[in-house]
Amino acid sequence: MYLYIIFTLLAILSFFQIANYKIKQYPHFYDFSYWIWIWILIFISGFRWENGTDWDTYYTYFNWLKDVTCIGYMEPGFTLLTSFNSHYFNYTTQLTSIAILSIVPIALQYKRISPYPLFSLFIWYATNFANIFSVRQTIAISLFVFSWKFIEEKKLWRFLITIAIAMSFHLTAFVVIPTYFIWHRYFSARFYIIVLSILTLISFSSEGLMQNIIYAIGGDLFKEKLEFYMEQNADSTFGSAYSTSQILIRGSVNRIFLFFIPLIFLNKLRLENSRLNAIYNFYFYSYVLFLIVSPISPALGRLGTYTDMAQALLIPYLFTIRIDKKNTYLLIVLIIFYFIIRFKGIVFNYYDLYIPYNFVLFQ
Question: Which of 89, 242, 306, 323 has a CB 3.0–4.6 Å from the CB of 93, allowing a cystine?
Answer without folding.
Answer: 89
